[in-house]
Amino acid sequence: MDDVSPPTLMPQHSGNFGSVPYDILVHFLSFLGPLDILAARQTCKLLQEATSRRSLWIDVLRGVCAENHIFWPTYPISDMATSDLVEAALTPTRFLSFIYKTRDPSESIEPSLSIHFSPGKNGARNIYPIDLLPGGRFLVCAGFKTLSIWDLGYPSERRSLSDPALVATIATEECDEFFLKPTADALGMQVFIISDPSNNVSVFEIHPTSSNPSFHKVTSLDITIRAWKDSYCLCGDRFFIISGNIVTVWDFSQDLWANWQIGKQPRYVSATDNYVIFVENGDQPRLGFWKIPPLHPIGSMSAALGVRSADIWLPLPGDIPIEDYGGLDDWYLTGGVGQTRRIIDGYAYNPLYHEAYTFFRVELPLTLAVNEEINSADDYDLDINFFDLPTTEILGSLGICNQNAVSVWTSQSGLQFHATRKTNIINRPYTPLDLTPFPRSASVRINIPRISEVAAFCPVTGRLCYLLHGHTDNAIYITDCLFRDSSEV
């Protein structure tokens, strides 16, 4: 139960705090980061008491979850002791320290003992997608014409891995790909299922910690799907489908849409509230911005807009051959503290060095995420940085951990967590002290039995899930990389 007490004045010996009410002091402390609060605890008896309040750590954990886009139901707040809340609030900081820890380059990490389970029989040879909701507790699995969500328990030093519990399952069309977003109340999630055989996009919703959790279908869109060639992006309530040079925008909450043609098929797509953003490859790669037009009811002739030109083009680095593009997971294009700054990465082989790889990161102007109109290319100076690639292949999209972008790469002996430092991924009302040491990026290699084609990871806890595909069963392995041995972190 939360501490609830009437406002009281602090004792006269409180020094510079004067006569500020005690509960106001606790409220002020909630604006500090977890490490700052623990540092304040060491200063005097009054702050030691104030920083031990359970209500304070609930507020702090709520802020940590918002900043890192952690799925709020990850943590069973009512069942957590104050020490559990403190541990959870510190987890993103600990995970970054784990990645940035100075190690021998050849050193690998043995994760905690893994468990594995089979989510069900697989009636086909296809490999179906899996994904972890940010926070690491809930795993979403697609199977042959099924969708399920499993409770793995939240990652913690005090909790060992246990057998996953099936939360809910539902029959669906065959799934080629799915996308996740939080519900407006932040207590549930919505799943967009792309079905190539059915030429359909279906939206399902579930609140996994409700008294009787179950999937229910929200809506669907019948549209020609070519999953092996199309590109997709989910931003808020809008889903973008790029098939060849045809762009379709579908607002699923209002069942409105529009479509138009562009010059040629893009290599990558992202979006903000006002713009859809494409990467066009060629002799001179560039970013194109199209303002999202007014949307119309499904079937309306007014929704077909013909050929539309970009509102603006911005050049990208053209001196390295780009093999692929990536960016933030679509989950991070919704909600959070302020708006998320868009990131686009270009991955390339570096011909100057033997078996070396590199990538550039483009951080789009933050104003593009806060409804500002684009006027001229001269108004924008793209923030572009170059990094070494730790290995050759990235698994999954980027996640966020305390202003760092975290990804998972394949390596010869396992997987690598890779973090790159960032100045302002999130448009935040304040910027806490960045205690992450130099360098700008770091990797840690995790030993796993086999490299999987399908993997999911939590960028704030180090939980990994990977699928090993069989003829009739798909075994999903779960391992925690951070919560292993306190001497390692």
UniProtKB/TrEMBL annotation:
Tell me one Pfam family matched here.
Answer: F-box-like
Q: Which InterPro entries match?
A: F-box-like_dom_sf, F-box_dom
Record's superkingdom? Eukaryota
According to the entry, every stretch annotated as the F-box domain falls at: 14-60
Q: What is this protein called?
A: F-box domain-containing protein
* Taxonomic source organism: Laccaria amethystina LaAM-08-1
